[in-house]
Amino acid sequence: MAAIGFIGVGNMGGPMARNLLKAGHKVKVFDLAAAAVKVCEEAGATSAAGVTEAAKGVDVVVTMLPAGQHVRAVYLGDNGILKAAAKGTLFIDSSTIDVESARAVAKAAAEAGMPMIDAPVSGGVGGAAAATLTFMVGGPEEAFAKAKPLLEAMGKTIVHAGPAGNGQAAKICNNMVLGISMIAVSEAFVLAEKLGLDHQKLFDISSKSSGQCWSLTTYCPVPGPVPTSPANRGYQAGFTADMMLKDLKLAQEAAKAAGATTELGADAAAIYERYAKAGQGGLDFSGIINMIRDAGR
Ligand code: NAD
User: What residues line ligand 1, using a CB cutoff of 6 Å?
Assistant: First the structure.
């Protein structure tokens, strides 16, 4: 069993840390929010006074932070965890961040003699609680092999996507498909409404035809056809529109840096930005259908 430092125990990190405890590991947590730390302590974790203390005297450090700037701040510099940890400590960053920051931090880790992987997740808060997350991993083979048993305690599907940063690359490519496809499905349902075609009929046909996709069959943006989709509970998230916007912006940043043309990705980012600016960012991202419907009125 490993001694693990876990930094960032919010909506995702909290249940992930608790699953590591359940698997029998010793977990020491740190978060800027005292309430988040308390929930983990109640589940059997110890707490650290700061990020450097969380990285000392452990075999592994897991980080689950909001964005690239937080990851850089926690890992790098004189007060960073790469400096504080013992040589050979394994680092797992599961935050969703920009590819450039992921590669910069991985380079600093390699230079400091620390094995490190980027391992962003999909599956949301429900997947984190049920230990069914999908981990998309970038980094050296040896670091992946060392991390795999721990990832298996928190997730179900673990894929090594290549060298450092490739986990983040996989995450933003996947979520760009998701953002675009949710808008496409929403536009189709709104058009169907105008044409007098029933939601359920469109669903029955498209879910068995070439329009079939996850946004339609798992996360259908209208109430009825998929009873578990957020549309049936007033678009309560789920996966918020703000989170979708974050990932679409990361995809646009990466596309610009890599010289890739992603016109629909850019359109999707602009559409979600409008939705967030209209004050709806806290709702599930499938709520975008309501803005699309209203635009036609
Ligand atoms: P969250 O805001 O609930 O948790 C982040 C935590 O990090 C907070 O508790 C915050 O206090 C803490 N934090 C920030 N800076 C810190 C620092 N310097 N030291 C210690 N703690 C610090 O966010 P979340 O929903 O848990 O998301 C975490 C990451 O997972 C994000 O990158 C997000 O994009 C990604 N993600 C989220 C979901 C989801 O459905 N929530 C799904 C997939 C991926």
Answer: 7-8, 10-13, 30-33, 36, 51, 64-66, 70, 73-74, 95-96, 121-122, 124-125, 239, 243, 246
- At 74, list the tokens: 């926690």
Give the sign of the dihedral formed by CA 162, CA 157, CA 82, CA 64.
positive
Active site residues: 171
CATH class of this structure's domain 3-162: alpha beta
Banded pLDDT at 280 (limits 50, 70, 90): very high
- Between the CA of 35 and the centroid of ligand 1 the distance, in Å, is 14
Q: Which atom of ligand 1 is nearest to the CA of 125?
A: 40
Model confidence over 223-261: pLDDT tens digits?
999 999 999 999 998 899 999 999 999 999 999 999 999
CB neighbourhood size of 78 (10 A): 7
Q: Give 174-218 pLDDT, tens digit per residue.
A: 999 999 999 999 999 999 999 999 999 999 999 999 999 999 999
CATH of region 169-295:
1.10.1040.10
Boundaries of every domain in the chain:
3-162, 169-295
**CA dist., res. 233 & res. 292, Å (int):** 19
Position 128 confidence tier, pLDDT thresholds 50, 70, 90: very high
- Tell me the DSSP string of 221-235: SSSSSSTTSGGGGTT
Phi, psi of 131 (to 5 degrees): 55, 40
Fold agreement between 3-162 and 169-295: no
Cα dihedral sign, 187-188-193-195: positive
Q: How far is the CA of 210 from the centre of ligand 1 (A)?
A: 36
